[in-house]
């Protein structure tokens, strides 16, 4: 929206860059959107908001000190991985004062990894997206087993052999009934699915994220909402774990996938919207597969299912006469 872009340009440059970095988590190069996202994170929890703030500042400052492209820095491209690193580590590792040092170091590393991957992927015109965040957080989560002053949190999965879910845990027919309780369950799962992109288990945060995206692009918001809906419908149809569906944990990856394919990286058309729908569905299958693949080492999938599916579709786009890359 024009008014938000005017405000974006009026914000002092250092603050504008930081807020754009937060906004780029959802592909939004807009400081107003980034501000809404950051406020939403603080609404979800002070620690998550502070961790995201420390992360985005650390990763952006590292890009400046390392002499990376100022154009990329100013659009927030070196900020969004750091934004995700902070809340992620505080969710999966034990909350201690020393963990703030881990957040700073991991955010700096995410900047280095991003620069390296941008160089590797540049000939193919493929974005690194959130892969630096994923690789960095995986490294730091595994590293805690070697250091006495850090320890895993209760949310980090325990290394185990994958097993079939119990029938009692699978979605029951009640989820498909037409009652007020069912409608509330759908509403909660969909909105939390958007919020879980930044590890926020909150309906309000998810709604604020959608509002922030809509300020930048209505199509982007529609893709995000559609991804969240797909992230509830498809797991129900496949008989996935009911608790995971209700928490929105099957939805946040399709949210990003549908935004990337249906709005950001391919020409926005009705055809690419349908393509985004297919990509969103496949992301759910990919997430389930990766979750079982990573179970023996006790790592969460994070946003890697989105990254893998997005990469495959964008690489395939170069071989298709129908899929046009966005300008």
Structural description of this entry:
Helix 11 (218-238) packs across helix 13 (252-264). The longest helix is centred in the C-terminal third of the chain and has 25 residues, at 270-294. This protein has two domains: 1-153, Ammonium transporter AmtB like domains (Ammonium transporter fold); 172-319, Ammonium transporter fold, CATH 1.10.3430. The chain contains 15 helices and no strands. The chain is mainly alpha-helical and 327 residues long.
Report the count of strand segments.
Answer: 0
> Number of helical segments?
15
Q: Compute the separation of the termini in Å.
A: 19 Å
Q: What does the overall shape look like?
A: globular
In CATH, the homologous superfamily of the largest domain goes by the name: Ammonium transporter AmtB like domains
CATH topology of the largest domain: Ammonium transporter fold
């Amino acid at each position: 929206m024009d008014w938000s872009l005017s405000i974006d340009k009026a914000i002092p440059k250092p603050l504008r860059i930081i807020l754009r970095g937060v906004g780029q988590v959802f592909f939004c190069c807009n400081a107003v959107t980034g501000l809404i996202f950051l406020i939403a994170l603080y609404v979800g929890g002070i620690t998550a908001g502070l961790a995201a703030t420390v992360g985005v500042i650390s990763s952006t400052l590292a890009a400046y000190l390392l002499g990376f492209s100022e154009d990329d820095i100013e659009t927030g491209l070196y900020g969004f991985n750091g934004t995700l690193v902070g809340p992620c580590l505080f969710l999966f590792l034990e909350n201690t004062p020393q963990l703030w040092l881990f957040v700073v170091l991991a955010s700096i590393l995410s900047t280095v990894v991003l620069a390296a991957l941008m160089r590797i992927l540049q000939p193919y015109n493929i974005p690194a997206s959130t892969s630096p965040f994923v690789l960095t957080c995986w490294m730091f989560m595994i590293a805690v087993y070697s250091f006495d002053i850090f320890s895993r949190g209760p949310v980090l999965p325990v290394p185990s052999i994958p097993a079939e879910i119990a029938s009692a845990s699978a979605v029951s027919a009640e989820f498909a009934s037409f009652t007020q309780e069912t409608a509330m369950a759908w509403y909660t799962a969909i909105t939390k699915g958007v919020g879980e992109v930044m590890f926020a288990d909150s309906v309000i945060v998810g709604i604020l994220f959608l509002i922030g995206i809509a300020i930048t692009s209505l199509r982007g918001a529609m893709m995000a909402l559609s991804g969240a809906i797909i992230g509830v419908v498809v797991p129900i149809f496949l008989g996935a774990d009911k608790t995971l569906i209700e928490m929105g944990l099957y939805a946040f990856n399709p949210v990003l996938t549908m935004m990337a394919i249906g709005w950001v990286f391919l020409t926005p058309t009705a055809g690419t919207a349908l393509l985004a729908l297919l990509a969103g569905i496949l992301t759910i299958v990919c997430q389930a597969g990766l979750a079982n693949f990573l179970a023996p080492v006790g790592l969460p999938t994070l946003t890697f299912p989105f990254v893998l599916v997005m990469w495959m579709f964008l690489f395939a786009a170069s071989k298709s006469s129908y899929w046009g890359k966005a300008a």
